[in-house]
Amino acid sequence: MVPPKPVPKKAPGSRELWRRYRALFPKYFWSEETRHASILIAGAQGSTLVDVDGKEYIDLTSQWSTNNLGNVHPEILEATTEALGRYGFLIYWMNPHLPMLELAEHLIRVRPSSNLTRVFLELSGTGAAEGAVKYAVEAQERPVMLGFMGQYHGLSIGTGIVGSLTSEARRHWEAYAGGAVHAPYPAISRRPDGMSPEEYGGWVLDFVRDELLHHVVAPDRIAGAIFEPVALEAGTWIPPKGFLRGLRRLCDEHGWVLIDDEVEAGVGRTGKMWAVEHFGVAPDLVAIGKALSGGLMPISAVLGTERLMVDHNVAAGTTFGGHPAACVAASKTFEVIERDRLVERSARLGARARKRIGEWERFDHVVDTRGLGLCLAVELGKPGRPRAPDPVRTRRVFFDCVRHGVVPLYSYGDHVLRIQPPLTISEEELDRALDTMEGALRRAAR
Ligand SMILES: Cc1ncc(COP(=O)(O)O)c(C=O)c1O
C-alpha cells in the first residue's frame, strides 16, 4: 500500500502566494464576482482540505462530486500508481489495453438499464456529454437537440449549445446555438404557485409538444433530448417523479434518443448508483465522468445501445481518453463502492442530512431545502418575498462557513448552497459541518 502523503501544515506567506496566483491566472479564477472560495490549497485528505496557512476545512463539495471516495483514497492511489508504472500511456483505439476492457465490463455490470451494451471512453465530462450528442446527431442523421434551461453539460462550444446554464455563460456564442432548442427544466422547487410537481412536469411536456414542435422545429429534425436527472449546477433542481417517463414516451413517439447526463449526479451521489434509477427510465445514452475514477485521474465514459454504437460509425474520442491508469482507478472505484456499500451510505447519510436541513426552513431567508442522497441544497430568498433570490446573503453565509472551517459548494446557482460531501465522510464530520452551516444561517438572519 502506498502511504498517503502527509499534508503540509504550514506554507508561510499566504499573502505573497495569493499575489503570485492573481498575477498568473485569468480573471475568472480570482475576481470577486466569480471566485467561489478564498482558500489556497496546500493539501487534501479524506474529507479535509488544508490551506497554505495550515488551516483545515471540511470539504462539502467533493470537488464538485469528483472525489466521491474522499480526497486521495489510498487504495485508488496505490492501484493508479502501479498502473502508471506498468502501462504508462497508450492510445486506446490503436493499442487497446487490459484496463479499458476491465473497466468496460465493470460499467456494463453496474449500468442503469440492460439496453446499454456498449462503452465509449473519453477524458472529461464535457467530452462524454459532447460524445453522447455526437452519437445521437450522427446516428440519427438529424441536426437538432432538445435541451432544458438551466442544465450544464460543459463549457465547450458543443456542450454550450445544448446546455443553457446562464445567458452569461453563452455570451458571444448565442448565434451558434441553432443546433438546440430548449424547454424549461421542470424543477419541483420552481413550479408555479398552485401547480403540483406532476402537473408542472406535464406542463413542460405540453410546452415541448404544443409550442416547440409546432412553432420552432419539426419533430423529425430532432435527434434526441439531453436531460440531467438532477440539475446540480443549476442549484440541485429535482424533477417530478413522472417527468422522465413522460419524456421517454415523447422520445419514443418521435424516434428521439434520450441522453442521460450523469456526469455529476452519477456514481452513488444521489443514493443510487445512477440518478436516473430514481425515475424508472431506460436512457439510450448515458454520460459519466467526474467521480468515475475515484477522483484521482481524468476519465469519462458514454454507455450506449447497439443501434447507436455498432450500427453507426461515429468518429469520437481524444488522445488521452481511456488512459490505462485512469481505467484501473475507475475499476478500483467500483470495487471500493461495492465493498464499502457507499451507495447505500449515500442514501442513509443523505436522508439524515435532508431531515436536518429541512429544519432550516424555520429561518425566514431559507426558502427551500431539497436533496437526493448526498446531493443536497439550501436555497436563500428575501424574507417575505420567497421567489426573490438573495445572492448577497448567500455569499455572506458561504464566506462565514469558510471562515469557520467548512466549504459548502457555491457556484452558478448563486443563491443556493449545496452540500455534496464525499460518500465516505464520517457522520461526526458531517454533523459538525451542518452545525457550522446552521450557525452561519442563524448569524445571517440578523
Ligand atoms: C452534468 C454535467 N455534465 C457535464 C459536465 C462537464 O464536465 P467536465 O467539467 O468534467 O468537463 C459537468 C460539470 O460540472 C456536469 O455537471
Which secondary structure elements does this structure contain, and how are they paired or packed?
Elements (H helix, E strand, L loop, with lengths): L13 H11 L16 E5 L2 E4 L4 E4 L2 H4 L8 H14 L10 H13 L7 E5 L2 H16 L3 E6 L7 H6 L4 H4 L9 E5 L12 H20 L5 E6 L15 H12 L2 E5 L23 E4 L11 E5 L1 H4 L14 H16 L2 H17 L7 E7 L2 E8 L2 E5 L1 H13 L2 E2 L8 E4 L7 H18 L2
Parallel strand pairs: 3-14, 5-6, 5-7, 7-8, 8-9
Antiparallel strand pairs: 1-2, 2-3, 4-10, 9-10, 11-12, 12-13, 12-15
The site of pyridoxal-5'-phosphate (PLP) has 16 residues, from helix 5.
For this entry, give a set of tags.
four-stranded mixed sheet; alpha/beta; 15 strands; seven-stranded mixed sheet; globular; binds pyridoxal-5'-phosphate; Aspartate Aminotransferase, domain 2; 2 domains; Aspartate Aminotransferase, domain 1; single chain; 446 residues
Can you give a write-up of this model?
- With 446 residues, the protein is of the alpha/beta class.
- The chain folds into 2 domains: 14-65 and 343-444, Alpha-Beta Complex (Aspartate Aminotransferase, domain 1); 74-339, Aspartate Aminotransferase, domain 2 (3-Layer(aba) Sandwich).
- The chain is 38% helix and 17% strand.
- The chain has 14 helices and 15 strands.
- It has helices at 14-24, 62-65, 74-87, 98-110, 125-140, 157-162, 167-170, 197-216, 243-254, 306-309, 324-339, 342-358, 391-403, 427-444; strands at residues 41-45, 48-51, 56-59, 118-122, 144-149, 180-184, 222-227, 257-261, 285-288, 300-304, 366-372, 375-382, 385-389, 406-407, 416-419.
- Helix 3 packs antiparallel against helix 11, helix 4 packs parallel to helix 11 (324-339) and helix 8 (197-216) packs parallel to helix 9.
- The mean pLDDT is 93.
- The structure holds pyridoxal-5'-phosphate.
